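Why should sequence recovery work at all? Because a backbone constrains its sequence more than one might expect. Tight turns favour small or flexible residues, buried strands favour hydrophobic ones, and helices have their own preferences. The token representation captures these environments compactly. In the example below, the structure is given first.
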């Protein structure tokens, strides 16, 4: 019977592995964003005029990215905790011979919804990142034929 429970718990554990991989990706992105924001905070005081405005605009986008990433991380951690709860409920159900199927299903669905929300936050962060990476039109010199 325990072997069957272990088999049943494998699907949630695979989701937990995916969550861990996404957390690793997000923490790497967060590290790069924080490093860039620290650099720009040092440059902030040394700039004036249009250059200063560009620095402030980039700092604002970085701040937005930091908020989105930290929300995604928080949501993924909650999802991981919900997956862990699902696995625990499956084992408790087996050990104590009680019907906890509804609770197990509920905690699993909560985990998947949280995972999906974290992915939406990640998508929003990548859109802000792409916006930030756009080359200013002045550098493109689009009025010139090359």
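From this structural description, the recovered sequence reads:
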């Amino acid at each position: 019977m325990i072997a069957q429970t272990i088999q049943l718990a494998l699907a949630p554990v695979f989701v937990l592995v995916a969550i861990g991989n996404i957390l690793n990706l997000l923490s790497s992105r967060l590290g790069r964003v924080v490093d860039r924001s620290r650099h720009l905070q040092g440059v902030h005081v040394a700039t004036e005029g249009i250059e200063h405005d560009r620095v402030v605009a980039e700092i604002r986008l970085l701040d937005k990215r930091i908020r989105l990433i930290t929300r995604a991380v928080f949501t993924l951690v909650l999802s991981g905790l919900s997956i862990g709860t699902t696995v625990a409920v499956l084992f408790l159900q087996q050990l104590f011979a009680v019907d906890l199927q509804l609770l197990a299903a509920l905690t699993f669905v909560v985990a998947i919804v949280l995972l999906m929300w974290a992915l939406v936050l990640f998508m929003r962060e990548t859109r802000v990142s792409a916006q930030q990476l756009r080359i200013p039109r002045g550098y493109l010199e689009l009025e010139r034929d090359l």
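A few observations help interpret the result. Residues 2-133 form one domain.
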